[in-house]
């Protein structure tokens, strides 16, 4: 799920910019300047929740694979 979400949801936006740049004959870094601002804004607004959800999926995967008995040490604990 992690890999498919990354490829199909998160990496879709850089791919769309790359594909447009290739079609228009522009380098990748020149594409955001060549398209209208509302398109960049829309892409950013659509990408933001995708990154948030991807972060949540990664955090859930880390919790899943972490052994149940071990918890990360608290920075407030002192070792005597």
Short note summarizing the structure:
It is a multi-pass membrane protein. The protein is mostly helical.
Describe the structure.
The chain crosses the membrane at residues 37-58. One of its GO terms (molecular function) is sphingosine N-acyltransferase activity. It is a multi-pass membrane protein. This protein is an all-alpha fold and 80 residues long. It has one domain (1-65). The protein is 69% helix and 0% strand. The chain contains four helices and no strands. α1 (2-10) runs antiparallel to α4. The longest helix is centred in the middle third of the chain and has 29 residues, at 37-65. It is elongated. 2% of the residues are buried. The mean pLDDT is 88.
